[in-house]
Amino acid sequence: xxxxxxxxxxxxxxxxxxxxxxxxxxxxxxxxxxxxxxxxxxxxxxxxxxxxxxxxxxxxxxxxxxxxxxxxxxxxxxxxxxxxxxxxxxxxxxxxxxxxxxxxxxxxxxxxxxxxxxxxxxxxxxxxxxxxxxxxxxxxxxxxxxxxxxxxxxxxxxxxxxxxxxxxxxxxx
Length: 173
What we know:
Keywords: Membrane, Transmembrane, Transmembrane helix. The structure is a single chain. By secondary structure, this protein is mainly α. The protein has one domain. Helix content is 83%, strand content 0%. It has helices spanning 11-100, 109-113, 119-141, 148-172.
């Protein structure tokens, strides 16, 4: 009895055994890699936790310095707000005096006493009145409690209005 298709009868079985050994070796390598990864994650998590605790501890120890700096900033901001409000109030008072005196001694004198006002003078009066109204609103709003960011923006708006009123004052003087 001769077998024509089977030259090496045990070769298929050896190939299956070698493939099984390769799979077992691969599984052990994956297992070892996962164990190492687990250890690294545990140690890394513990070190990260310690680092967070230390960061928070140093943050708490720096808090008094930060509070002192914020207190200084708030005091400076309050001083600047007072100065800005005083300048705006002075600009509004000078425009009130000018309007009460009917613009005597300025280029507006003719416009106050003329029966009709040209477009340029009317636009100037409108601009002045708009900025005076805005200035009065800003001075009234200064009495309300604002947070730091709102106070800075309010201070900026007060200064812009003051500068614009002063520019208009120089324009008519």
